[in-house]
Automatic annotation (TrEMBL):
<comment type="function">
    <text>Decarboxylates ethylmalonyl-CoA, a potentially toxic metabolite, to form butyryl-CoA, suggesting it might be involved in metabolite proofreading. Acts preferentially on (S)-ethylmalonyl-CoA but also has some activity on the (R)-isomer. Also has methylmalonyl-CoA decarboxylase activity at lower level.</text>
</comment>
<dbReference type="Pfam" id="PF00378">
    <property type="entry name" value="ECH_1"/>
</dbReference>
<dbReference type="GO" id="GO:0005829">
    <property type="term" value="C:cytosol"/>
</dbReference>
<keyword id="KW-0963">Cytoplasm</keyword>
<dbReference type="GO" id="GO:0004492">
    <property type="term" value="F:methyl/ethyl malonyl-CoA decarboxylase activity"/>
</dbReference>
<dbReference type="InterPro" id="IPR029045">
    <property type="entry name" value="ClpP/crotonase-like_dom_sf"/>
</dbReference>
<dbReference type="GO" id="GO:0006635">
    <property type="term" value="P:fatty acid beta-oxidation"/>
</dbReference>
<comment type="similarity">
    <text>Belongs to the enoyl-CoA hydratase/isomerase family.</text>
</comment>
<dbReference type="InterPro" id="IPR018376">
    <property type="entry name" value="Enoyl-CoA_hyd/isom_CS"/>
</dbReference>
<dbReference type="InterPro" id="IPR001753">
    <property type="entry name" value="Enoyl-CoA_hydra/iso"/>
</dbReference>
<keyword id="KW-0456">Lyase</keyword>
<protein>
    <recommendedName>
        <fullName>Ethylmalonyl-CoA decarboxylase</fullName>
        <ecNumber>4.1.1.94</ecNumber>
    </recommendedName>
</protein>
């Protein structure tokens, strides 16, 4: 194999590895196999994935009798569905939503009750932080469709998406203070990135419910949907489609550039932007677009 092809393949493999790797390993006291075994003991609900022909997937948090609370087995299923999405090369967008017109009431309280020792809490925290970071890093434009309530860990899941759409009656609430805890699924760090430290401090320290207008005014929500029930999903599909129009290769490259900018310091980010630019410049989509523009002028 010529050296340049080998180098390219190695670069791609490294990029894939960086995207999929867990944030934590044994040096942080994290044992993934043990974590999975412990979480599997707390079952209930499911996390369902539908990959659409239009390149937009729908990921459903499904535990309606508990307002879509996330059980241990749902944490495992969420991780499996993210792994599946990481391999979906035709994908362009993702809509995360909850079953039966409500988003998610956070960690399943019966699971958290059983995992209330500090060691178990940290294990769950590292597992969920890794999973949600992988969700955030997917080369897909992601949207949380918030209907009903997004409470505690449910509010944290919202922050792992690029955008948040709220229906008129919905509410996001970082309720953690009332539980005597802070967000542990990465929601605090991500909230600060989304709305800045001052607003984040207000929301976390008041534990107040955030209604759509307020969320929109502080930049937590990106739009308020007028539809409810099934129509809200249709509206969310239309909303996201203005950002996912075009070839998957291009949309995925755009998301990668933004992810890199968010995660790296400026100099690293510029280098990473250069690497990603190199993967699309001179490629078939670029050349086709170029020839169209040249013909027009
Ligand atoms: C690092 C992670 C941090 C965390 O996520 S900690 C967990 C934080 N979440 C919470 O404290 C949410 C507690 N739940 C609530 O405040 C309310 O149920 C909620 C979501 C506002 C919905 O209120 P309502 O619409 O009035 O419904 P409801 O209270 O009657 O609930 C319906 C059934 O769902 C259950 N449920 C709701 N949230 C749950 C949860 N997180 N874990 C386990 N079960 C939960 C609730 O117990 C009730 O069950 P049942 O019908 O009485 O058998």
């Amino acid at each position: 194999m010529p050296l340049t092809i080998l180098r390219c393949a190695m670069k791609r493999a490294k990029a894939r590895w960086c995207q999929h790797r867990s944030l934590y390993n044994s040096s942080h006291g994290f044992n993934e196999t043990e974590a999975k075994r412990a979480l599997a003991l707390h079952s209930g609900g499911s996390v369902n994935l539908h990959k659409g022909q239009n390149g937009i997937a729908e990921l459903c948090l499904n535990n309606p009798s508990r307002k879509n609370a996330i059980s241990g087995s749902m944490m495992l299923e969420l991780e499996e569905q993210i792994s599946d999405l990481e391999k979906w090369n035709d994908g362009k967008g993702l809509i995360v939503y909850g079953a039966e017109d409500t988003f998610c009431s956070g960690a399943d309280l019966s699971a958290t009750n059983a995992l209330c020792k500090p060691k178990d809490g940290l294990m769950m925290c590292m597992f969920m932080q890794s999973t949600l970071t992988r969700l955030q890093r997917l080369p897909l434009i992601s949207v949380s469709l918030v209907q009903g309530k997004a409470i505690g860990g449910g509010a944290e899941i919202c922050t792992a998406c690029d955008f948040r759409l709220m229906t008129e009656e919905s509410e996001i609430r970082f309720v953690h203070k009332h539980m005597g805890i802070v967000p542990g699924w990465g929601g605090a760090s991500r909230l600060i990135q989304i709305i800045g430290p001052r607003q984040a401090l207000k929301l976390l320290s008041s534990a107040q419910g955030i209604h759509p207008e307020h969320a929109l005014s502080i930049g937590l929500a990106d739009d308020i949907l007028s539809s409810t029930a099934d129509k809200a999903m249709e509206e969310a599909q239309t909303w996201i489609s203005s950002y996912t129009k075009g070839p998957a290769e291009t949309i995925r490259a755009i998301k990668k550039v933004v992810t890199s900018g968010r995660e790296h310091a400026l100099v690293d980010s510029l280098r990473k932007e250069k690497d990603i630019f190199g993967t699309v410049w001179g490629g078939p989509v670029h050349l086709q677009a170029l020839s169209k523009v040249l013909k027009r002028n």
